[in-house]
Fold:
Amino acid sequence: MLIDELIIHTVSMPLVTPFTTSFGTQTVRQALILELHATTADGTAVTGWGECVAMESPLYSSEFLAAAKLVITDHLLPALRGQEVTAETVAHRLQPIVGHRMAKAAVEMAVLDAQLRGHGVSLASYFGAVTDRVPSGVSVGIQPSVQQLLDVVGGYLDQGYVRIKLKIEPGKDVDRVRAVRERFGDDVLLQVDANAAYTLVDAPLLRRLDEFNLLLIEQPLGEEDLRQHAALARQMSTPMCLDESIVSAEAAADAIALGAAAVINIKAGRVGGYLEARRIHDLARANGVAVWCGGMLETGLGRAANAALAALPGFTLPGDISGSDRFYAKDLTEPLVMKDGHIDVPTGPGLGVTPIHDALAEFSIQTTRLG
Ligand code: OSB
Ligand code: MG
Structure:
């Protein structure tokens, strides 16, 4: 296809409840929504949608929304203009531009969506999905008190979520996990995510989590601390899972070889796109490493794509793919609904969902047309 126009919608979506991690509290989700207009080789006009998961500030990773937008407008789009482009060649074409994986992922997602819509193929069948619904886990932010945490977790369990992930940080870790275990029992699938809030000297503390039979501990140490994660993994019985550190298939290969990851959280945005995410899935599967699909408070667009990815056979653990209503009273698309602890994998062409015109208008705070 040839790209005719890219429209970047900056949206601001209020969260139903503040979301606190070890790196900060969010009350709104700002995101870039890409609307790509292109023409296929036979002259058909196609539209594709992408979502950039970069956050407003560079707290989770070095990328952030304003920089992602600039890189898309000034560097990524110009590199794709004027020449035939396919989803499978976007990453190669953007290779000379160093880093900016979340920005690249959004562009590739829009091209892939347009391409698949043109062919009438769903993202799930393009990936090779083997299931029509995926188990739904929920990421629980750090709560002001233990009692509030128990209330929130109880609410999600009542709704039917099949796995609970507790965000932790120093001082709100072992006691929080113990309280949840004592209240809800040993059968709850439970894991923790530290978002890089600890260092290797905290190993004795982190080892105290071992008694709670957690599915995994996610990214206790820094993004670049692969060797230290491997050292920590040797000191703990809780399986080590990496999120921030896995920025590419190469990083995944290194982490697996070093013994730094028994489990990998796959996020397409963090690794530069859904195609790289699938490669990491394949690599992990070939190495006997379990994967699950992470989340970045996506709107229905990214949420739908995540559900399609998570339908691949290596996704053996429930992902952070909750219903739209976990974050948004009103989503940008028709909502993804959690039912019986699962989310249906969309079946329509491409992502299978599109932004609702009125919702996009309501949440949009800036529109940039690159014609
Ligand atoms: O570390 O997985 C994370 C949200 C924003 C940034 C990083 C993370 C998260 C989550 C939420 O845990 C996952 C979701 O979208 O449900
Ligand atoms: Mg994480």
